[in-house]
Write a structure and sequence with these properties.
The chain is α/β, with parallel strands linked by helices. Helices cover about 60% and strands about 10% of the residues. It has 17 helices and seven strands. Helix 1 runs parallel beside helix 2 and helix 5 runs parallel beside helix 6. InterPro entries: DNA_pol3_clamp-load_cplx_C (IPR008921), DNA_pol3_delta-like_C (IPR048466), DNA_pol3_delta_N (IPR010372), DNA_polIII_delta (IPR005790), P-loop_NTPase (IPR027417).
């Protein structure tokens, strides 16, 4: 059973006897919890919903909550968060405590829905996990698949009443780096970014790549990508505009030099790995980088030879020395870089 089926069943009150939701995508876990709450009679919810902190509770409290019958409703829902007995280490409970609880789970009343929640990983070898699996459902709330993520992002933009094309959705996902193995971004982060972009463009207006890049948390990095793109395409006016915008927004010349140098080093790295037969995704995993950054570097590698890159890196080192020794103004140094390598 996938997440959509689980959610559909909860909404239709087709409830399992017990559940265990765990994983890194807290958004999905909390969404399920909210739906469990909504399945109860609002006027009686204080009597029929118990949310227990699994790190603070005692075993008798858990068992008592499970065995208590609902009051003027069909079901009682008991939610136990971050219960120690589902994880690898035990501080507050013994092996005998675990066996004692497991023995009581078999006698859980049909009127009780028991929901265990772990914000993170569980120890799947634990007897308690196996017991929940046998009597109900264990689900890993992992990151969304490509298609599910696309649909989720599209729906969130629609809920914010803005228009966005499919290509812009793909760009948004790529820029955010949610799918990268090393990324700690969650759907909560993406939802915040979607709201920020939607609020900026306004209801009934269109979201474009320009707004996505402009408002992205990675805006400075995206500006550097554009700057290097323009230099590679020898478009002096476009490169100068990006550069001047960055300077006006308060970016330091030393910071710009540092980011340009970093990106050119990445270009050289990814080119070498590509020549060795690595795919884009394999390169991203090997270098522990955002796949979007790797993709940009691979595209930019077509516009610069290793010799030109080395020349640019040397120019940056020399300019850094000249600026610090008062031999050249900061802004002039970076403007010369742009002009020189656009006209090479």
């Amino acid at each position: 059973m996938d997440y959509r089926d689980i959610i559909k069943n909860i909404k239709e009150k087709k409830l399992e006897k017990m559940y265990l939701f765990y994983g890194q995508e807290f958004y999905l876990i909390d969404n399920a919890i909210n739906l469990f709450k909504e399945s109860l009679n609002d006027t009686m919810i204080d009597f029929n919903l118990e949310v227990i902190d699994g790190q603070e509770t005692v075993l008798d409290k858990v068992i008592s909550s499970i065995e208590t019958l609902p009051f003027m409703d069909e079901k009682k829902i008991v939610i136990i968060k971050d219960f120690e007995l589902l994880k690898g280490k035990k501080k507050n409970f013994s092996d005998s405590d675990e066996k004692y609880l497991i023995s009581h789970l078999d006698n859980t009343p049909d009127t009780t829905v028991l929901v265990f929640v772990v914000y993170g990983e569980i120890d799947k070898r634990k007897s308690l996990v196996k017991k929940i699996q046998k009597n109900g459902l264990v689900f890993n709330c992992a990151k969304l698949s490509d298609m599910d993520l696309f649909k989720w992002v599209k729906k969130r933009f629609a809920l914010n009443e803005v228009f966005i094309e499919n290509s812009e959705i793909m760009h948004f996902i790529e820029v955010q780096g949610y799918k990268d193995k090393s990324s700690e971004k969650t759907l909560v982060d993406l939802e915040n970014e979607i709201k920020k972009i939607s609020d900026f463009v306004g209801k009934q207006n269109k979201v474009t790549k320009y707004f996505i890049d402009k408002l992205s948390q990675n805006k400075v990095e995206n500006d550097i990508f554009k700057l290097i793109d323009y230099i590679g395409q020898r478009q002096v006016s476009g490169a100068m505009k990006i550069l001047n915008d960055m300077l006006q927004e308060g970016e330091s010349v030393f910071g710009i030099f540092s980011m340009i140098a970093r990106q050119f080093r990445i270009i050289m790295q990814v080119r070498q790995l590509q020549l060795q037969g690595y795919s884009r995704q394999s390169i991203a995993e090997k270098l522990k980088m955002n796949a979007y950054v790797v993709g940009k570097a691979l595209n930019q590698a077509n516009n610069f030879s290793d010799e030109i890159i080395i020349d640019i890196l040397n120019f940056i080192i020399e300019s850094d020395y000249k600026i610090k020794n008062g031999l050249i103004k900061e802004n002039l140094a970076v403007e010369i870089l742009v002009s020189k390598y656009c006209k090479r």
